[in-house]
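Narrative of accomplishments. A recurring question from our advisory board has been how the design workflow behaves on a single, concrete structure rather than in aggregate. To address it, we present the structure tokens for one chain from the evaluation set, followed by the sequence designed for it. No filtering or post-editing was applied between the two.
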């Protein structure tokens, strides 16, 4: 998430009321999670296990809960609770804007796009040309929709990321300040839920078609010309490359990469990144090998019965 105007390290430290390490005019241009950080960004880290990853990332400012040696060319913000302070930054630079109408005045809707009754379109939404948005769709703030997109009833774009910190008093939510981006010629079935990114974009690539009741988690990137069948669930920060086929009731855990052209058969549970192939079962196994094993066991069982 980029700031509308660049900030200085001292300005950010004053906003959070924290100590800083580095030049007070050190430039800060945005905040992002570790997997999408760029030069100029702030990343937060609150566990020693991930210190090195954060300090060596592309982020140039690290919001951290311990005073450590600052890498050359970077800056530190020393906080007793980086998770809390990261939320403060999201609230300050990307505050929630409550809508006053079903279709916000700041929404842009392209020509020849049809909006059916009872659709909600939030602030700063951009919808392209020749789209069809069916009744009762919800498109929350800052979503971007390309041309020739169809969205069926009861689908929700831009709900919050499922991202929590476990505290003694309960679960503390990481505030979502990212977007949902649908590229051209995407088709979404009924009752799909697409979470916004925490700081970046949840993206569905051009020409991808998604069936009913599919969930896509925060910051996931789905490539071009993918097919995803009903009741599949894709956790956050997953990368699904182009032309992947996912059949019904597939579950994919977070942070994985599914290589271009892969096929996931129905009810497959994916627990690791996959090279191109066809997979089935939980945990996932190569499909043809699984069939051979099933046939062998069936033949062995039948032989024992004789």
């Amino acid at each position: 998430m980029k700031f509308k105007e660049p900030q200085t390290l001292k300005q950010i430290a004053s906003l959070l009321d924290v100590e800083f390490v580095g030049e007070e005019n050190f430039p800060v241009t945005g905040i992002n999670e570790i997997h999408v950080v760029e030069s100029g960004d702030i990343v937060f880290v609150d566990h020693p296990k991930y210190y090195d990853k954060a300090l060596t990332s592309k982020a140039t400012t690290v919001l951290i809960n311990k005073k450590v040696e600052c890498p050359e060319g970077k800056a530190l913000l020393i906080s007793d609770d980086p998770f809390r302070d990261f939320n403060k930054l999201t609230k300050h630079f990307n505050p929630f804007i409550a809508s006053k109408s079903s279709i916000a005045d700041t929404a842009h809707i392209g020509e020849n796009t049809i909006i059916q009754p009872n659709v909600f379109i939030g602030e700063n939404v951009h919808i392209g040309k020749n789209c069809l948005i069916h009744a009762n769709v919800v498109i929350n703030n800052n979503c971007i929709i390309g041309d020739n997109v169809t969205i069926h009833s009861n689908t929700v774009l831009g709900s919050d990321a499922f991202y929590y910190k476990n505290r003694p008093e309960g679960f503390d939510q990481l505030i979502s300040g990212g977007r949902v981006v649908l590229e051209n010629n995407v088709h979404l079935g009924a009752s799909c839920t697409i979470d916004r990114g925490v700081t970046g974009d949840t993206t569905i690539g051009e020409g991808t078609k998604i069936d009913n009741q599919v969930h896509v988690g925060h910051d996931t990137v789905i490539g071009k010309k993918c097919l995803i069948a009903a009741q599949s669930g894709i956790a956050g920060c997953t990368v699904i490359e182009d032309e992947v086929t996912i059949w019904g009731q597939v579950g994919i855990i977070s942070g994985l990469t599914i290589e271009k052209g892969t096929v996931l058969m129905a009810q497959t549970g994916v627990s690791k990144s996959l090279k191109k192939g066809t997979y089935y079962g939980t945990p996932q196994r190569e499909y043809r090998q699984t069939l051979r094993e099933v046939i062998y066991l069936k033949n062995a069982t039948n032989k024992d019965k004789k």
